[in-house]
Design brief:
Number of domains: 3
CATH topology of the largest domain: Pyrimidine Nucleoside Phosphorylase, Chain A, domain 2
CATH architecture of the largest domain: 3-Layer(aba) Sandwich
Order of helices and strands: HHHHEHEHHEHHEHEEHHHHHEEHEEEHEE
Radius of gyration: 22 Å
Length: about 425
């Protein structure tokens, strides 16, 4: 089978066969097809698209490039949650513990930050002593004993996706719906959960900014995952402004603990409750309203916080993070406040701009492998809809140096829009795709 002919067929808008997809991918993984030909195929897919069956086969080929995690020996219904990435999105820290406290088994393989979107692994690793490098046997033992484990993505889970994503990142093909779908679905299916809840972000701080395209991505993710005999539901959620009041690794862990205590920002609490309730639905519960009531009780009674403490202890983290998080987590050497220069209402808060500011502060990375500052980030004092007067605090920046604060300040200030009239109320959950 000739690689050039496969590229040409997709370039001309034809659907590729199962054999063409599997042969091309396996040949690429063996080094028989060079990066430039894989890049050409990715661009052809980006321009011409793929049919659902093609995307399922591309996902299957990615899964088969590595190991399928076998969770069959672990009792209970296994469910997972995946976010397409956002700014201030610390929901996994809450939702994993919340669903596990309700009796679900949650095997969570998570990623690190790249660009302006945060990574769950970086957030967790800001907890002193905590390890996310869990070998398979330890991961499985923890699932049996605790009911949840959060580990960094291992190299043997969908390794083709890692290589292909590196090409997509430098060839302008990151935004392709079929390629995003295959990337996400291959890792989630290979990780072994029987039910997967997807949080598809839409807005300035999301991978897919347009709401209609976010809905399309959600539909494709659900349909492709179901093609592997898994259950799936997607929530399309707003990422026009950051989620919660903090952006930055240690800052977000502290805020997640606040939510687990029954406190914290309302938007973060509401989304965590809805994601966890949906996970219980996929774990076998029948009534979503009953699931919502149950997870709210678990949050407010402290059961979810206790489960988070178990996860932290099992992975070697300092247990005091649950009782006094801000005393245990790293703190920035320097802080600076950004203030409003006008009166009115906050009508806009650009999540992408806040994310880029956090990168300048040291909280994010531009390239895989770069070090980050776990204490860096931004605390948002005001968000969309809040009234503001000249001189009021908009946000507080945290960094290791005054130079970093000076670099980030224009971005943080520029992220805010203030007008005379209050904006229309925004919906956090835009749609549910099942």
């Amino acid at each position: 089978m000739d690689a050039v002919s496969v590229i040409a067929r997709k370039r001309d808008g034809n659907a590729l066969s199962r054999d063409e997809i599997h042969h091309f991918l396996s040949s690429y993984m063996r080094g028989e097809i060079p990066d430039y030909q894989m890049s050409a195929l990715l661009m052809a897919i980006c321009i011409q698209g793929m049919e659902l069956d093609e995307t399922i086969e591309l996902t299957r080929a990615m899964i088969e490039s590595g190991r399928l995690l076998d969770l069959s020996a672990i009792p209970g219904r296994k469910v997972d949650k995946h976010s397409t990435g956002g700014v201030g999105d610390k929901t996994s820290l809450v939702v994993v513990a919340l669903a596990a406290s309700a009796g679900a088994v949650v095997p969570k393989l998570a990623g690190r930050a790249l660009g302006h979107t945060g990574g769950t692994i970086d957030k967790l690793e800001s907890i002193p002593g905590l390890t996310t490098e869990l070998e398979s046997e330890r991961f499985l033992r923890q699932l049996c004993r605790v009911g949840a484990a959060i580990s960094a993505q291992t190299s043997d889970i969908a390794p083709a996706d890692k290589q292909i994503y590196a090409l997509r990142d430098v060839t302008g093909t990151v935004g392709s719906i079929p390629l995003i779908t295959a990337s996400v679905a291959s890792k989630k299916v290979a990780a072994g959960a029987g039910g997967i809840v997807l949080d598809v972000k839409s807005g300035a701080g999301a991978l897919v900014s347009d709401a209609s395209r976010a809905r399309l991505l959600a539909r494709w993710l659900v349909d492709v995952i179901r093609g592997f005999s898994r259950s799936a539901i997607a929530l399309v959620t707003d990422m026009e402004q950051p989620l919660g009041a903090t952006v930055g690794n240690a800052l977000e862990v502290a805020e997640a603990v606040d939510v687990l205590r029954g406190e914290g920002p309302l938007d973060l609490r509401c989304l965590c409750l809805e994601l966890a309730a949906t996970m219980l639905l996929l774990a076998g519960e029948r009534d979503i309203e009953a699931c919502r009531g149950r997870v709210a009780d678990l949050l407010d009674t402290g059961a979810a916080l206790e489960k988070f403490a178990e996860i932290v202890h099992a992975q070697g983290g300092d247990p005091r993070v649950v009782t006094e998080p801000r005393a245990v987590l790293p703190s920035a050497k320097e802080t600076s406040t950004v203030r409003s220069r006008s009166d009115g209402y906050v009508t806009g808060l650009d999540a992408a701009a806040i994310g880029r500011a956090c990168m300048l502060l040291g909280a994010g990375r531009r390239r895989v492998g770069e070090d980050i500052d776990p204490a860096a980030g931004v605390v948002l004092q005001l968000k969309i809809g809040d009234a503001v007067s000249r001189g009021d605090e908009l946000a507080t920046m945290h960094a290791s140096s005054l130079d970093r604060l000076a670099l980030a300040e224009p971005l943080v200030y520029g992220a805010y829009r203030v007008a005379d009239r209050p904006p229309q109320k925004r919906r956090l959950i835009l749609d549910v795709i099942d």
